[in-house]
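Assemble and predict.
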Amino acid sequence: MISVHLKKLRKRTDISAEEERAIRNAVLETRRLPADIVAIRSAEELHASMLLLDGWMARSKDLASGERQVTELHVAGDFADLHSWTLKCLDHDVLTLTECTIAVMPHERLKDLFERYPHLSRVYWFMTNIDAAIHRELALSLGQRSAISRMAHLFCELHARLHVVGRTNGDSYELPLTQRELAECLGLTVVHANRTLQELRRRALVEFENRQLTILDRRGLEGVAEFDSAYLFLDRRTL
Amino acid sequence: MISVHLKKLRKRTDISAEEERAIRNAVLETRRLPADIVAIRSAEELHASMLLLDGWMARSKDLASGERQVTELHVAGDFADLHSWTLKCLDHDVLTLTECTIAVMPHERLKDLFERYPHLSRVYWFMTNIDAAIHRELALSLGQRSAISRMAHLFCELHARLHVVGRTNGDSYELPLTQRELAECLGLTVVHANRTLQELRRRALVEFENRQLTILDRRGLEGVAEFDSAYLFLDRRTL
DNA sequence: CGAAGCATTGAAGTGCGTCAACAATCGTGG
DNA sequence: CCACGATTGTTGACGCACTTCAATGCTTCG
């Protein structure tokens, strides 16, 4: 199951067999989490990071009024909170959106792993830098893109990220989010997210039924989104 | 001059004399950059990172229409693009907002530094994680906060960050941004940024004259902003 | 001193939010 | 298997925060 994570890493750089063993040995246990729980509460002290092997998670922050912003979605292969290993506690909650399978990596083991394998230290640092790049693209969306462009952009990004880990089916992929959750990712109200989605359907850019998102017109969708995958750093490199 | 950077690090963790020497030795040269230039263009190949010693810089991304979003402001002591050492090229531009003094740290030397001092590797990884936390707080602002709350939040954040490096004067600090640049940080138009600023003045929360920002009512401002400095990780820790 | 950038103001428009109702779907227990 | 309550999706009417456009005065600095 952890192979989905190695797939993500190997899309970007070489990981030796020995390094792979070391990564696998850093896993304390594999666990299942039910859907719709707060897996990590903001500010709570942490001693392990969670590698998401299956299911969907989200990082979210909220205001006193209850308004919530999802700052990043996580799919199979993502480290949901690798940053907790230096931060010790998080500035946001981590939620499960579906039932999830996670691998638990104690911070102690991560420390050993990174000291023993400086290359892996660079690889994972690189991965957290990609996370930050995703955050910046989100800021661009929330600050400057229209609702329809924002939503189109999210659909493009998720396709690209899921493709890396082999979770797409042509131009289609499973997207188990409610419109409320979608709205929370996009800084919109549910009502407007609904209307925006309808507009994307009306323009024959996407379909979204039974938790399945299908991109009908890739060029068109990417055009509306001004999507350019460069910020996902999908090219191979030496680290 | 690099002492401002060490100040920032030592606010969070211990840096030994030997480590300090190593950091200083990683600097190839110190350089001055004029105001209002693109110091790094997005996607350009990089071989060194820039440590900002004096002046203000900004990371910015823009859309085809020319609309621009500033994703982070940088002040004295900040690494403007530490992430370029694993990313090789950036997903955003780096601009100078004022004349700047920077220390150039070649990626080769950073690699040596981090391999020789795993502790520093963790320290700098931690710093990039703080950057990401700042990004997430920005996403919350852009997605959920009102214009006035966003602006109040930015003023609070900058005060906290400048305080760490000793660049505040009580509740006052130099803020050499035009209203256009302020607007680009906040995802607003210049006109509305102007009106929002006036509203903050009208409520006697801040003054902003001659590039000098003064917080008149800290509690009030933090209240409007829902500001909580936890996401800046200002406490000391062992890494 | 003139030109260019910057701050400010007013009037009018609009994208998205709010409120409220209802329909469709889903999960659960009887 | 159906009944049900709860969650999710959809629609309409209306309101408002922010945008757009356009003009004017104010700095700043060659």
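Residues 118-144 of chain B form the longest helix (27 residues).
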